[in-house]
UniProtKB/TrEMBL annotation:
This is carbonic anhydrase. It comes from Dietzia cercidiphylli. Transmembrane segments: none annotated. The lineage of its organism: Bacteria, Bacillati, Actinomycetota, Actinomycetes, Mycobacteriales. Its EC number is 4.2.1.1. Belongs to the beta-class carbonic anhydrase family. It catalyses: hydrogencarbonate + H(+) = CO2 + H2O. PROSITE patterns: PROK_CO2_ANHYDRASE_1. CDD domains: beta_CA_cladeC (cd03378). SUPFAM superfamilies: beta-carbonic anhydrase, cab. It is an enzyme of class 4 (lyase). Catalyzes the reversible hydration of carbon dioxide to form bicarbonate. The keyword Transcription does not apply. Keywords: Lyase, Zinc. Pfam families: Pro_CA.
Amino acid sequence: MSTDLTPDAVLDRLLSGNRRYVDGAGLHRHQDPARRAELAGEQHPFGMVFGCADSRVPAEVVFDQGLGDLFVIRNAGHIVDPSVLGSIEFGVDVLGIPLTLVLGHTSCGAVGATITAIDTHSTPSGYLRDVVERISPAVFEARRDPSAGYDDVVIENVRQTVTAIREKSTAVNRAITEGRTAIVGALYNLAEGTVTPVHAEGRVTL
Ligand SMILES: [Zn+2]
């Protein structure tokens, strides 16, 4: 089942919703009992968001969407692992979603923890170590530019998440190559509420 939208149309719908949210003009559609009942048997979300788990960046809120609109995956620092890739493949190949938006944000705590771990030569214990290890390559890449700051690392982490999804998932790469889907990486500004695209894989216009 496909939403029959192009990746450009999905991106436009998401960014339009974000502008409403920023302006305090949200429509808050699709959040009523009628919509809930309509969707009980099936879902046809038009877009997919893979974002950071940060409590200040809830996908449906910042894009002014409701029930059944978005297929959402979130974890700390939007790190790519097998469960994430399986979820994205479900969204692309089973639900037919034309666009995945990878959403990082300013002052991301997972990125900050990784920078601290690297700078203090300390490794967190438990599974937090896994988060830090997966974000570390973005810190080293961003710091090829000596002037790179915190949010430059955040943007590099978004870019690396976008490329990792395509590189690791044969199914997603095939869908992108065939023009059935695209991935856009974007930065959410915690203070302003704005979403700014920074990177794309596939046929989509930023
Ligand atoms: Zn974060």
